[in-house]
Specification:
heterotrimer; A: MetI-like fold; C: mainly alpha; MetI-like fold; 10 helices
Chain lengths: 336, 526, 280
């Protein structure tokens, strides 16, 4: 197993380097001059040229890339042209926000998706099954930016029961940062009102993001439960008189779990792309929002750093998924 | 399971209601300001509508705007003497002014501030660089400053409120690589004003906490001062109004769209403040670039825009048609100026004339609309649909303000046509016509018409040089007519600014310039 | 195939999907003839702004007085055009590369697969945004950005399928007979790989409509006044909650269109390639 982990991690490096090359070239193709932007409104041509030289922007592209990579290797992800803040500091603030949203989304989609899938499987081809099927297929077809707006419209604007945007109400003070997850940090600070507040702000963005994930999980749980139900040992368990409920929750579900775990990697991809629009709509100060704004103003250092961060997280999640799968089902490890 | 979910929901709703009540009752000492924030708190390098809010409240300046209509009046200056030729100014400073670190302000601070502003060459600097050199700002004593202008500049005193006086020692202590302390002051203050930055609270464009300086040298006119001000801009148009309706913020920015005016007026606890500053709205055309370099082509565009429909329907009549570069009620605007009206036949005629002059009028032209200011995009789409009828293809692209500013630095990258507001920075016709159409503006967003005309330059320079109001009026009228004849830009309207403010905020008076409201005069009704 | 077709036509959800796609196709082909105000695709009418849904304007009007119903229907063409060209372009690149890499193995397959790894190292939308930012926003830039980021999906599928087919005995036999590589690939391998491609392409149409609309919503896709659904929702956002109709209907159109492709894709998967039934 450790060898498997090492190999997967080693394979990650060239892929991430390739990603960096690709995005680096893209950011340099953008018709925008970072030096002019940094120099400001009234800068003279000479000032801009001087700045360009200082930033190394007048060197050949491969040299610039090399400079960038050595800079990153030293843990320096540069400075935002726009906010003049260190990109690393920005990321450190924003990554926990996205993680908190991801955790809420995952909890919600597994908590809803697995039971839905089981119910559908048990009532296979019944009315409930068809109903769940329609809902899950529709869940995958909804544009998340639109869902986000519609949820805002109904629950925030019309019914006024859920907050419109942000992680906490404006004017409310942040918890003392320990983990960066506001719900947890408020809890650590013993501020229960804060916990409720932060959790309440999570609801709409998490529901929006969880919709396609729930649909996927429900569908996979359904098919794997059906498959397991047809296996001999289940028939046997039933024959010796275990109640249906016990059989399903204790035996069938455990056997179907590995199929669901494989989906987490895919779901995480869905989550990451969904988070770009959902964070933008809900003003959630996370990675997706950061990346989108950086692309919008062609602020190249944050674009590169965020893409890299997303790539790392994505790869790690996929490795974790493979490992979990290997733990559940040793045959995978042999193939790996 | 269904039932459990229901309870969860109901419990959550109750919690939400409780939280709202708590919010309404508690925290009366803090005001949440929802206006925009700049990307730096540096008072010298940025000069725009949002930055006035922090500049006015963190810093003091030699002069301030006061009264109605606002006029420049001495603030840090106790006594001033000006020479008859309008070139030499002697200022004697107040002696009781202290910076936030307790140090007394002296003449060196004033000299440092002006030299810093001129040396960084950004923000307000362009208003001064044409007539003031850094070495001509000097101390003549511990408390006296002399400024010698290269030539007279009529609106000089009107410009003085723009220059914040900073704590020289604090900035020098925080200067790295000869940057005039720019990196440090971006998130801190070095002022003497009624408020100070809560250290570490500034996030560019996102948030800032301010706290009152209790022993402010001018004192506090309101017994219940606002101790704490939290700046929490709401960046998107869609949620801004909801945020102020719910009391998440106490005031919005000043671009509330006319479509929303009724809603603000009807909303309980909310009022719509009309800020009586002049704000013009215009399309800038890159006069140096074909096909816009042709006057007939520019006239065709000018005749194609449906001014009246735009003002009466999209703006619901809240603005005033402004046919020339100056706001209609500003002195210097010719009262009989006709300008252009929506007339597609005239547009076609001028387009034909341009074609006959060898201009490629069939080329697609690009309009740059500003992200976050949907009105610019609506205006662009209106123009687009009219131009389509005369056979001109307009494509619309969106760009962020900062990027447009960068593009306007060079003639080649400057937008072909784009829309913006000409806000009041100082109350003088020069604010609109001089900073837009004189040569020194080239290379900044204000000069993005890339207009070069010797006669206009002469007129506008003459209007700066003389102190005779009647003569200046005549010169500005002539320049306005000339600019309109040449259809340099498409001037559309001037309007008041509109801001939604919660009623619990009392004593709110609009700032004379941008968001520069004086927080000292305000209090919060419990 | 007739059997497959019959099965498709007896599956109620597939029928529903086909029905939706048929309606969408009609809208895409004959949009202007179907709608009451075809000129509203580009014409602003500020005198009738923000009218709620009525007999005259079924879906109301938008901030520039344009009929939302007309624009929603005409949006079908834009969506279908983007989806079709992106999927076809991605297939034209991905399928041959996948075939070659899977068949030859060796360094070629290494290179191709590592490149697809790079493209799939982040979700498609992230890269598509980076690509789109390089170009001026328009429908064609959105198509290009999506096609450039979508081909690796086809490449990988075809690669895997080709390797599977290649291990089958008949390929060895063909090679032994001295058949040309191109002939083997296109006449013998491709038909065996085709079902998997068709399934992914159908689902891919739906996915592409979603991602393209997202680009439009974020201002990196279609440019105004194109009646593109994502852009329409974005333009309507500032009028919430009063002008809700402007955002509601284009979003429902996206939902229906993607639903159509997903339903048909599901059914096609069950019929064309039972092995795929359990994967995504």
């Amino acid at each position: 197993m450790p060898r498997l982990i090492l190999r997967r991690l080693a394979l990650m490096a060239p892929v991430l380097l390739g990603l960096l090359v690709l995005v680096f070239v893209l950011t340099r193709l953008v018709p925008s001059d970072p030096a002019a932007m940094l120099a400001g409104e009234q800068a003279t041509a000479a000032q801009i040229a001087e700045l360009r030289a200082r930033l190394g922007l007048d060197r050949p592209l491969p040299v610039q890339f090399w400079l960038y990579v050595t800079q990153v290797a030293q843990g320096d992800f540069g400075t935002s042209l726009y906010t003049h803040r260190s990109v690393l500091a920005d990321l450190a603030e924003r990554i926990p926000a996205t993680i908190e949203l991801a955790l809420a989304t995952m909890t919600l989609s597994i908590g809803l998706g697995v039971p839905l899938g089981v119910v559908a499987a048990v009532h296979r081809n019944g009315v409930l099954d068809h109903l769940i099927r329609v809902v899950t297929i529709a869940g995958l077809a909804v544009a998340s930016f639109w869902m986000a707006l519609m949820l805002q419209l109904v629950f925030s604007m019309w019914l006024d029961v859920l907050p419109l945007r942000g992680r906490i109400a404006t004017g409310m003070s942040q918890p003392p940062i320990v983990t960066g997850l506001f719900t947890l940090d408020y809890l650590l600070a013993g501020d229960l009102r804060g916990v409720a507040h932060a959790a309440w702000h999570l609801v709409l963005p998490a529901v929006t993001l969880a919709l396609p994930a729930t649909a996927t999980i429900a569908r996979f749980t359904r098919s794997s439960v059906i498959e397991t139900l047809q296996k001999d040992f289940v028939t046997w368990e039933r024959a010796i008189g275990y109640p249906q409920r016990v059989v399903i929750w204790r035996y069938v579900l455990r056997n179907s779990l590995s199929a669901t775990v494989t989906q987490v990697g895919l779901l995480f991809g869905l989550f990451l792309s969904g988070s770009i629009v959902v964070e933008a709509v809900f003003g959630w100060p996370g990675l997706g929002d950061y990346l989108y704004n950086a692309i919008l103003i062609s602020d190249y250092q944050p674009v590169l750093a965020t893409t890299l961060a997303i790539g790392v997280v994505y790869a790690l999640v996929n490795i974790a998924v493979d490992l979990t799968q290997a733990l559940i089902d040793p045959r995978v490890a042999e193939q790996g | 399971m269904l039932r459990r979910n229901f309870f969860l929901l109901a419990g959550g709703a109750a919690a939400a209601v409780q939280m709202r009540v708590a919010r309404a009752q508690g925290g009366a000492a803090a005001m949440v300001w929802g206006g925009n924030l700049s990307r730096t708190l540096d008072p010298h390098t940025v000069y725009d509508v949002p930055s006035a809010f922090t500049r006015v409240n963190f810093y003091d300046s030699l002069f301030e705007y006061a009264g109605s209509p606002p006029e420049p009046r001495p603030l840090l200056v106790e006594e001033m003497q000006a020479s008859a030729d309008g070139r030499t100014f002697e200022f004697r400073l107040r002696s009781n002014v202290r910076f936030h670190d307790g140090r007394a302000m002296d003449a060196e601070d004033v000299v440092y501030s002006f030299r810093r502003m001129l040396g960084l060459r950004r923000g307000v600097a362009p208003a001064f660089t044409g007539f003031l050199k850094a070495e001509n700002v000097t101390t003549t004593g511990p408390n006296t400053v002399r400024m010698v202008l290269d030539r007279a500049f009529a609106p000089f005193l009107s410009c003085l409120p723009m220059v914040a006086i900073v704590n020289r020692q604090l900035l020098e202590a925080n200067t790295v690589n000869n940057d005039w302390g720019e990196a440090w002051i971006a998130g801190n203050d070095a002022g003497s004003g009624p408020y100070r930055v809560v250290p570490g609270s500034f996030r560019a464009l996102q948030s800032l906490d301010m706290e009152a300086v209790t022993d402010y040298w001018r004192g506090w006119p309101q017994p219940r001062q606002i101790r704490s001000v939290l700046c929490r801009p709401v960046p998107d148009d869609a949620t801004r109004l909801l945020a102020v309706e719910r009391g998440d913020i106490d005031a919005t920015h000043s671009y509330i769209r006319p479509d929303q005016h009724e809603r603000v007026r009807r909303a309980p606890g909310l009022r719509l403040v009309e800020e009586p500053q002049f704000r013009t709205f215009l399309f800038r055309m890159n006069n140096a670039k074909a096909p816009f370099s042709n006057v007939d082509f520019r006239k065709a565009i000018s005749y194609a825009f449906p001014y009246d429909l735009f003002i009466s329907r999209v703006l619901r009549g809240t603005a005033e048609r402004s046919p020339g570069p100056l706001p209609v009620s500003m002195w210097g605007n010719p009262s009989d100026l006709q300008g252009y009206s929506h007339d597609l036949d005239a547009a076609r005629r001028h387009l034909e004339a341009a074609r006959n002059a060898g201009v490629d009028v069939d080329r697609e032209i690009t309009f740059t609309a500003l992200v976050g200011f949907d009105e610019t995009e609506q205006a662009a789409q209106l123009l687009q649909s009219q131009l389509r009828r005369i056979g001109v293809t307009l494509r619309i692209q969106r760009a962020v303000w900062a990027n447009v500013v960068q593009q306007t630095q060079q003639q080649e990258t400057s937008p072909e046509i784009w829309a913006h507001w000409g806000s009041t920075y100082y109350l003088d016709p020069d604010n609109w016509i001089g900073t837009f159409y004189m040569r020194h503006a080239l290379g900044s967003q204000r000069g993005s018409s890339w207009y070069r005309d010797d006669e206009t330059e002469r007129l506008l320079q003459a209007a700066r040089d003389t102190l005779d109001r009647a003569e200046r009026r005549r010169l500005y009228e002539e320049a306005s007519r000339r600019l309109v004849d040449q259809a340099v830009d498409v001037w559309i309207y001037n309007s008041k600014a509109f801001r939604a403010v919660r009623e619990r905020i009392r004593g709110y008076r609009p700032g004379a310039v941008g968001d520069g409201v004086d927080l000292r005069e305000m209090w919060i009704e419990a | 195939m007739p059997l497959a077709l019959r099965r498709l036509l007896t599956d109620p959800s597939a029928l529903l999907g086909l029905g939706i796609l048929l309606v969408m196709l009609v809208c895409a082909v004959a949009g202007e003839q179907l709608v009451p105000y075809p000129e509203d695709a580009f014409d602003a009418k500020p005198w009738q702004r923000l009218e709620p849904p009525s007999a005259e304007f079924w879906f109301g009007t938008d901030g520039l007085g344009r009929d939302v119903f007309s624009r929603t229907i005409m949006g079908a063409r834009v969506a279908l055009m983007i989806a079709l060209s992106v999927v076809v372009a991605a297939m034209l690149v991905g399928v041959p590369l996948g075939l070659l890499a899977g068949y030859h193995g060796g360094w070629l397959s290494e290179v191709v697969m590592r490149v697809t790894d790079v493209f799939q190292a982040v979700p498609q939308l992230v890269l598509a945004l980076a690509f789109a930012a390089v170009m001026r926003p328009s429908v064609s830039s959105a198509m290009l950005a999506l096609a450039l980021t979508y081909w690796p999906f086809f490449c990988r599928i075809v690669y895997g399928e080709t390797r599977r087919v290649k291990s089958g005995l008949f390929v060895d036999a063909l090679q032994a007979q001295g058949a040309a590589t191109g002939r083997i690939l296109f006449l013998h391998v491709l038909p065996n790989v085709a079902p998997a491609i068709i399934v992914r392409a159908t689902i891919g149409m739906g996915v592409t409509i979603l991602v393209a609309a997202t680009l439009g919503f974020l201002g990196m896709g279609a440019a105004p006044p194109t009646p593109e659904w994502g852009l329409m929702v974005a333009e309507a956002r500032k009028d919430l909650p009063e002008g809700w109709w402007q955002s509601l209907f284009p979003g429902l159109a996206i939902l229906l269109a993607v639903l159509g492709f997903n339903l048909v894709g599901d059914a096609v998967r069950d019929i064309a390639d039972p092995r795929l039934r359990r994967s995504r």
